[in-house]
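Example 4.3 (complexes with small molecules)
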Amino acid sequence: MLEIWDSDIVLLKRSWAGILLTALVSCGGVDDNGIEISAVRIFEPLPGSTTAVAYFRIENFGDDTRKLLGVTSPQFGVVEMHETTLDENGVARMSHIDEMLIRPESALVFAAGGRHLMLMNPIAPIVDGTRIELQFEIESGVAYSIIVHAESRHRQ
Ligand SMILES: [Cu+2]
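Answer. The structure with copper (II) ion bound is encoded below.
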């Protein structure tokens, strides 16, 4: 376990090229569990790739710590939570995030250059406008389903 920012994350060794993107849009609202998911954006795969990338913000307005177990999508065979960090040589590396705690009155931000979702093995090609459902799984059996449309990389 490493203590990073406001959350505990489990890092499993994994390397990948880093991807830098920007994103911020609002949607959603606070539910009975005090969870709000917002700023969800998905970007289409780069040329020659089938892997899309997504960003979001999840905030806990409640009094209890919540745990984000992961994200799934019916449009993808595999969805992983990753974090991009720079190694000692300044090279971007991606690490797999197993799960994350969301403390009361705090937020986890998945955004350009840091945490992100990797959406892999799509069941059909992902292009600008493709409708995608993301299911955020919170411990205690709560799941949040959010529909977004893939965006062109040109709008990053
Ligand atoms: Cu990644």
